[in-house]
Amino acid sequence: MRTIEYKDTGLNTVLDVDVEKRTVKSVWNTVDETDLDNDIIIQPAYTKTIAERGPLSSQLIWSLTDHKADMKYAIGKPSELYFEGNRLISVTKIQQTAHGNDMAAFYNDGIINQHSIGFSTIQSEKSANSGPRIIKELQLYEGSAVMWGANGNTPTLGMKGFTFDEQKTTLVSRLDLLIKCFKSGTYSDDAFILLEIQIKQIQSEILALTTLPVIETVKPDSENEILKVLKETNLKLKKLV
User: Where are the domains of the chain?
Assistant: First the structure.
């Protein structure tokens, strides 16, 4: 029995949002490069699955949210699925549902900017000397918009290799965007709850920077800088209540 695997690019993957047409163009995955799981998906791995399950055939591939195979979390189905260079591109029309309305707003406001694929490996081989696994064929089920990072349980996974200052800058920028949208956004009650949860998650990630092992030399005042950011964030949140 094949298991479902997930791959995230760890990059800003939204290429274009058309509010009037309710379409989003995004990068679902990249190929021919080693990922954080020490895997390489080669481009031909997608040939058969897109031909048999894609927009021009049986239309069995979905655009979802957070890999949840539930109509409540469905964004739609891609109308286009193709490669540009080493990037798997999807163009999806966002459905006219309450969840779709929130997702359209999230895309437009820049809150959603990462995507991940859900798939099963059909054929692969392991490289010699502990090299990467090469995925030669897969079955693609869906591409998901993800709120943050490669793994919801470990958001900083997508920031491996970043310096301390890069991690802090990325997290603080994300936090500022979320607070701005929390203050002025027009979302459903459930969407505001998601924003609040992610704000708390990122606060925890910022605080964790004071305890995670850092290879480079950290400035003596780094912990004070982080605590200052957290204090300022809490003051902003209190003003919104």
Answer: 5-146, 161-240
